[in-house]
Amino acid sequence: MASSSSSSSTQVKKITLKAADGKHFEVEEPVAMEMETVKSFFVGNEDAMKDMVVPLLNVSSEHMPAILDFYRNHSEFRKRTPPPPAEEVKAFNEAFLENKSDEQLMEMIMAANFLNTKELLNFLTEAAANRIKNKSVEYVRAFFGIENDFTPEEEARIRAENEWAFDGLDED
Amino acid sequence: MKREKRSNDSVHDALSCDDILCDILLWLPPESVFKLIIVSKRWLSCICSYAFRRSYLKRWKVSSHLLGFFVCNSLYLGRPRGGLRRGKSEPALPLLSTSKEGDDLKYSGILKQLGYFIDSSNGILLCGRHPKTYYVWDPITKQKHQLPRPRVYFEELCMAFIVEDSPDEAMCYKVIRAKCETRLDEVNNVTIETYYSKTRTWCYSTLTCTSILSLCPWLVATVVRGAIHWFAVKGNIAIYNPEDEDRRIALIKLPGSFDFDERVLGESSEGLLQYGISCKSGMEIWILKTEQDGETSKNSKWTLRYKLNFKTTWKKNPKLMTTFSTCSKSKETQLLSFLPRNSESVYIRTGDNIFVCHLEAKEIEVVHYDGRGSSILWDFSRVAPYFKPAWPYSSLCQDGQSTT
């Protein structure tokens, strides 16, 4: 009686998320609620039971563990008093990005955008920006896999119209 | 985009979402982001867009660049009947160019069609001839507007020019003409006429003040955060905010000595009004801070930010001093102008030479300009730096926008 109710309250509720490729992930409710997309699945949707599986159409299972790890750690950082030292957060963030290819980074940005979590999206877009900062236009095109769709004449015209923007050095 | 560059399509998908592209670009500093306009058509239109500009300017401080200095001879612009006439060979709108863009503007011929220089705001020029003809010209889109004739005649007047950021290509601005009272009887109101580009009409109104005031004629206002600041007689400035509907004009006493040769107004780095005066010995820079004093009343207070002695400042720059033999001329040094939204540096001049003076370090650098040969009547002229906001623009953007 009493023991059963206390055991259920200490046990954190889990929500099941389904990645794009069909793989299931059991996630603690507070962590799952970090994602606005998951939250809005339940909020205002009276029929949605907490044991329903939430489909995440745009998130591949490859990135789910890392993304969940990010939420868990960052929500823990936010709750902690006193707040964790900046170095600790920085160390976690750096470790998070380590060994991630440019392509993986872009896929995670897509996922964060779909999951609608500002914190993760800001963090990842800043990381992408850092990778293209001070790089040449050629490098940026290669980074994102973009084709130059300007004719040489058009490109020359833009350069002429905005000469000041190209005054600096055109390094790497 | 049909071509496959990568095995995974999702990268293309990510970038086909403008929000994500903007989110990434927002993290890049100005020197890195603007040259990316030539990555592709989509990037060009994204970076040039109004939405991106708005978000970007909230996060980054983007500097303007100096094209040159306009010389505005007050003898011609506010010329009384029978006053001094401009010589045929003398350009009405001389530009002392300091950049290639300035040179292009100077030789484009457009400056011959605009009359005299009155003011510039956000890179857009207000020119013309008092009291009837006014032009507004955008150097980027090359749009030229001739304003309709003002409806009222003012014997003596001062002006204000405010350009607002607009989401489309159309220029959005206000031109204000304010009457300068010459009568000796004392008045506590100012008659103004406002032209608004959206309504395309001049609108007449009267501003009231709690004290007696008279504006100094033939000057242009300094606009800080939408509020207009005009010099008024007896060492005051008059402040009017066109957004306020109560049509009031406030009067604030200027600080410092009244024994000055030059005085200028400007906007500080933090968006406050700054006031600079110079006399033979040196210059002072003051900042106006407004504090909310209780519920309704505001308390404005001037603070002295810099006080510089010209002689000692020149001695700190011995190389320049010998090159321009300004040692003996140090007494002739004058404050010329502030830089836009900047409290670190000011323009000063001695004779025909213009310098930028870094106030904290007391360092002086020469500003090279083209047009030294032209005779400038410095005592009767306002020499105003002409800045253009550093934001990319492309004529391709207009026809390119729909292709993505």
From TrEMBL, chain A:
Domain spans labelled SKP1 component POZ: 13-74
UniProt domain SKP1 component dimerisation: residue ranges: 118-165
Role noted for this protein: Involved in ubiquitination and subsequent proteasomal degradation of target proteins. Together with CUL1, RBX1 and a F-box protein, it forms a SCF E3 ubiquitin ligase complex. The functional specificity of this complex depends on the type of F-box protein. In the SCF complex, it serves as an adapter that links the F-box protein to CUL1.
Subunit composition and interactions: Part of a SCF (SKP1-cullin-F-box) protein ligase complex.
SMART domains: Skp1 (SM00512)
Family: Belongs to the SKP1 family.
Keyword Metal-binding: no
Cross-referenced SUPFAM superfamilies: POZ domain, Skp1 dimerisation domain-like
Pathway: Protein modification; protein ubiquitination
InterPro entries: SKP1, SKP1-like, SKP1-like_dim_sf, SKP1/BTB/POZ_sf, Skp1_comp_dimer, Skp1_comp_POZ
Protein name, entry field: SKP1-like protein
Keyword rRNA-binding applies: no
GO aspect biological process, one term: ubiquitin-dependent protein catabolic process
Keywords, alphabetical: Ubl conjugation pathway
Native organism: Dipteronia dyeriana
Pfam families in the record: Skp1 (PF01466), Skp1_POZ (PF03931)
Automatic annotation (TrEMBL), chain B:
Positions of the F-box protein At3g26010-like beta-propeller domain: 117-325
SUPFAM superfamilies (alphabetical): F-box domain (SSF81383)
A Pfam entry, by short name: F-box
Domain F-box: 18-53
Domain of life: Eukaryota
Descriptive protein name: F-box domain-containing protein
Source organism of the structure: Dipteronia dyeriana
